[in-house]
Amino acid sequence: MLDLSIALGDTSTTRALKNGEVSIEGVNPDFVEVKPIIAAFRRMVREQAYDVCEMAPTTYMIARAHGAPFKALPIVLMRRFHHQGLVKRPDAGVDTPKDLEGKAVGVRAYSVTTGVWTRGILQNEYDVDPDKVTWIVDDEEHVSEMKLPENVKHVRQGTSLAEMMHKGELVAGFTGNAGIGRTGAPTADWSGGGIADDAFPEVIPDTSKAEVEWFARTGVYPIHGVLVVKDSVLADNPWLPGALVDAFEASKKVQLEMLARGETHDAADKRYLKDMPVVGPDPLPFGMAANAAAIDTLIKYAHQQRLIDRLYSRDEMFVDI
User: Fold this and answer.
1) Which of 16, 123, 197, 211 is placed for a possible disulfide with 175 were both Cys, Cβ 3.0 to 4.6 Å?
2) 188: which residues sit within 8 A by CB, 6+ positions away?
3) How far is the C-alpha of 22 from the C-alpha of 251, rounded, in Å?
4) In this structure, is the dihedral angle defined by the CA atoms of residues 19, 20, 22 and 24, taken in order, positive or negative?
5) Which of 119, 110, 96 is nearest to 222 (CA)?
6) Between vectors from CA 65 to CA 9 and to CA 311, what angle results, nearest 5°?
7) Strands 2-7, 52-55: pairing kind
């Protein structure tokens, strides 16, 4: 048996795997609990702390472009649309997304996947130039080698994105942990106290309609979590990607059966139930073909935003299982 340290978030997709209901053939897993799971992303990027790790896809792409010794499998652990989740002050003169240009917008970190997806949508669907927006951040980037564009600024010491939004120093901000849902810098337990998600109107109008139309036209249901494995582990165990796919498929099957009964365990499940009439009965398909549109689009967005140095191919970024 192959001993592997594995860091995964607690979701309905991974629950049956982590509680032992589903096993990984040929593997003796040591599931390492890290909360919030994004702390594991940073440890994996900087220290290669685990053999296998869940990771935000943009963080992964940036790390891989900087030579990180791990590679992603097309096992997608979370998806969500990203037209919604960027809200504005009603008095800020932002009548259309284009009006964000020349103004300040708050986001936890410039490379956070939520921000990358939404900026890409703003640029490619609403003709917003992200370079003409001042992006205010309150956290460090996971990949420390990454150089930030000049229009990215850090919050003043002693203040927060939520406070700046309240005072009108920001015209818009990302909701929840991605931005104004906290009163201060991110903490181990994601302490809140910030601005409620529904306190301000969305920047993109009629987001649900926009998401349905966008998916029908592009086939992109944005990926928001992938699985990475150390290069050395992959090289020594060429059978492992197949075993991991089989195990995660079995774990996900438990989740899909639950969703088919209309049951949910968390906010992600509720989103999937809402989105399934649009995206189909399996909101988390695995494999390169099923994820090609989303992978290619995210690579394009990351390159447009100068997070990666060139347009990488899918095969450079993902193991084709």
Assistant:
1) 197
2) 35, 36, 39
3) 6
4) positive
5) 119
6) 110
7) parallel
C-alpha of 60 from chain center: 10
| SS3 (DSSP) at 211 | helix
Q: Which residues pair with 73 in a beta bridge?
A: 227
DSSP label at residue 112: -
CA distance 195 to 200: 9
Kindly report the pTM of this predicted structure. Answer: 0.95
Partners of 110 in beta bridges = none
Closest to 152 (Cα-Cα) out of 164, 168, 140: 140
pLDDT at 192 over 70: no
Q: Which bin fits 134, alpha (ψ -120 to 50), beta or left (φ > 0)? A: beta
Residues 6+ apart with CB under 8 A from 194: 160, 161, 162, 180, 181, 182, 183
Distance CA 101, CA 241 (A): 44
What's CA 28's distance to the chain center, in Å? 28
**DSSP 3-state assignment of 207?**
helix
pLDDT in tens, 44-88: 999 999 999 999 999 999 999 999 999 999 999 999 999 999 999
83 DSSP 8-state letter: S
Contacts of 112 (CB under 8 A, 6+ apart): 56, 58, 174, 178
Residue 80 in contact with residue 274, Cβ under 8 Å? Answer: no
Nearest to 126 by CA among 86, 77, 163: 86
pLDDT in tens, 234-289: 999 999 999 999 999 999 999 999 999 999 999 999 999 999 999 999 999 999 99
Nearest to 98, CA basis, from 198, 204, 27, 199:
204
Report the alpha-carbon distance of residue 85 to residue 82 in Å, rounded. Answer: 7
Backbone dihedral angles phi then psi of residue 156, each to the nearest 5 degrees: -65, 145
**Of 237, 228, 236, which Cα lies nearest the Cα of 26?**
237
